[in-house]
Design brief:
Blueprint: H1 3-6, H2 12-19, E1 23-28, H3 45-60, E2 68-73, H4 77-92, E3 97-101, H5 121-127, H6 131-134, E4 136-137, E5 143-146, H7 155-159, H8 164-174, E6 177-181, H9 192-195, E7 200-206, H10 212-222, E8 227-234, H11 276-282, H12 290-297, H13 319-324
Parallel strand pairs: 1-8, 2-6, 2-7, 3-5, 3-6, 7-8
Antiparallel strand pairs: 4-5
């Protein structure tokens, strides 16, 4: 046996690559380790998202099109039942599903969280109870459950019942997908006749509890063509071991040094301003400039060179600063800018009297009544009676009797 077959899986990705199977999802270990277990939506958003991802990949697998999928793995019976319940809840959101609890030794799945006697798989396989009587809906929409039912110790006769094939046929007619919570690995050989009716299998590997060699063996037992993928169960990390997500402050540039506090005096002063004479002394002698010519012609007896400002004005000491400073006047001497010119006084505008309003004079037009109409002379038309009609002379046509008619002369041919 090679070293790679003995070593454990380093990560869920390594397990999927080595087994050459799709990685369906990485769900966290269930926190509740008690039963009975009723199918319901996972409360944690991250866990629900991972189950959604696993459900989508299972439904896209061609094995799920055959109507049945099972869960098997080297995990505890209670943890596998919890995973089967959560996964079936998300699968039922897409297709009407029936969850079959085939773990006769565990029997953790129930319609609700109450522990009570109920009929189920054992009653169908051993006592001839029909599946419509024992299959009932759960609290999860679209999901029905077939629990273990009555307890039994004869696992071989139950798993090897002749009613297994007819049971799966009835379940496929009732729901779109049959999900089987597989037995414990210790009962795997005994349950082979029952497990042969399941089309595809999801290998559940619990990192930190499962043995990689047993997961590899399960793939060899069922065959790579009958494995849908690997569902990894990862241990919940404590908060101190969570991946560090850098905060927004870590992306900010280093803070700048604090600004230098400065005091703004009422009168702005200019210090260390080079004068024209300083520029003249710093310039090389052979270089000619208008500044040099101006300073050579300017009289220097009245104002010392060091007391000339940048504009050729005498510099004065600010007595207020000299009094405040313990060491005497400021050094170097500061130039005091001229005081700003006072704005001219504005005289308020004269009060304007509003113009007198005179309504326009309106003269109504003179009304002249219409002139009196003289009655017109109406003369009715003269009526003339029609002239007397003379009676016309009417002569009736002359009538001749048929006897007076002469017969036509007949000539033989």
């Amino acid at each position: 046996m090679t070293t790679g077959a003995i070593a454990e899986f380093g990560s869920p990705e390594d397990a999927a690559l080595e087994l050459e199977l799709p990685l369906l999802g990485m769900v966290r270990s269930p926190a509740d380790e008690s039963g009975p277990i009723a199918p319901s939506y996972p409360a944690d958003e991250r866990t629900r998202r991972e189950y959604h991802r696993a459900a989508d990949r299972i439904l896209l697998s061609p094995l799920s099109a055959k109507g049945s999928v099972g869960l098997i793995g080297d995990v505890s019976s209670l943890r596998r039942a919890r995973i089967a319940a959560d996964l079936s809840t998300l699968l039922a959101a897409e297709k009407t599903s029936i969850l079959v609890d085939a773990d006769l030794g565990g029997a953790h799945l129930s319609f609700d969280e109450r522990g009570r006697s109920q009929e189920g798989l054992v009653d169908v396989l051993r006592y001839g109870v029909r599946s419509p009587r024992v299959v009932a809906p759960t609290q999860a929409p679209g999901l029905n459950l077939l629990p273990v039912g009555s307890g039994t110790v004869d696992f071989a006769s139950t798993y090897g019942s002749d009613s297994t094939a007819s049971l799966f046929a009835e379940l496929r007619r009732t729901g779109d997908l049959v999900i089987v919570n597989g037995p414990d690995l210790s009962d795997l050989d005994t349950a082979r006749p029952f497990l042969a009716e399941v089309a595809g299998w999801v290998l559940v590997h619990d990192f930190g509890a499962s043995v990689a060699a047993r997961t590899r063996e399960l793939k060899e037992i069922f065959g790579a063509d009958a494995c849908v993928g690997v569902l990894a169960v990862v241990v919940e990390r404590p908060p101190s071991e969570e991946l560090h997500a850098p905060s927004s402050s870590e992306f900010l540039p280093p803070s700048l040094p604090p600004p230098i506090e400065t005091t703004i005096e009422k009168e702005q002063v200019y210090e260390d301003v080079p004068s024209y004479r300083d520029a003249f002394e710093a310039a090389p002698p052979e270089e000619a400039s208008p500044v040099r010519d101006f300073l050579e012609e300017a009289p220097t007896g009245e104002v010392p060179a060091e007391d000339v400002g940048s504009q050729g004005q005498p510099l004065e000491e600010d007595a207020s600063h000299a009094e405040e400073s313990p060491g005497g006047p400021f050094e170097p001497i500061r130039a005091v800018p001229p005081a700003p010119a006072e704005p001219p006084e504005l005289e308020p505008p004269e009060e304007l009297e509003p113009p007198e309003f005179k309504p326009p004079e309106f003269e109504p037009p003179e009304f002249k009544p219409p002139a009196a109409l003289e009655p017109s002379e109406f003369k009715p038309p003269e009526f003339k009676p029609p002239e007397a009609l003379e009676p016309s002379e009417f002569k009736p046509p002359e009538f001749k009797s048929p006897e007076a008619l002469e017969p036509p002369e007949f000539k033989p041919p």
